[in-house]
Amino acid sequence: MTLEKAVYEAQQAINYFFNNEFQKARDIMVPYANSSMYHSIGNAVFSFLEAILTFEHRHIKLASEALKKSMTVCDKYRKKNSFGKSLEKMVKKINYENYSEVEAHAELCYAESYLLKAVLTFMEDETLSSFIKAGLKIRLCYSCYRECHNILVNRNWDNSSTKPHFESGVRMGIGAFNLMISLLPSRVIKLLEFIGFSGNKVRFLSL
Q1: Structural domain tally of the chain?
Q2: Domain containing residue 180
Q3: Kind and range of the H or E run holding 142
Q4: CA distances (Å), 174 to each of 106, 114, 198, in order?
Q5: A Pfam family name for this chain (predicted)?
């Protein structure tokens, strides 16, 4: 399935979802949830929403499994870097032109899946270790979103029909992070900034 068709069908599913036609939305997402990143994350999002609305253990478990599957599917399409390439990224400027559209969207879908999985971790178990795990996941997710933003501004998107979808996802993700963190107490914000987070309500509104 092409990226354009996957995005189109994801839009269709969202329209059905907001028109309260939930089964029609799922019928679009489920058949390709194991192979298409947008179908996979769409199916996972529907399961996630059901979990947070019901707080039932069964739904939380199903959502967790769906998000794990989504991360696996998205990871297959992400740009693969060897150990040497990873070291090179630390000392040289990255050429984002090397990212294909599919790889760029895969990075975004992976970040979205990771964020929802982190939120779900808080619901699965309320122990201290789970909070730490969730915090680490959110930190990694934030890094993924920043990488997506770098792809957005540094890659040539001429004649790309999928750029608006990618851009809206990136801006929504980074904007949500900035808004949520900026609303925390100042002492907590200072601690988060120390480990790499930043929160700015003005920046959120500008995104």
Answers
A1: 1
A2: 3-206
A3: helix 128-154
A4: 16, 14, 10
A5: Iml2-TPR_39
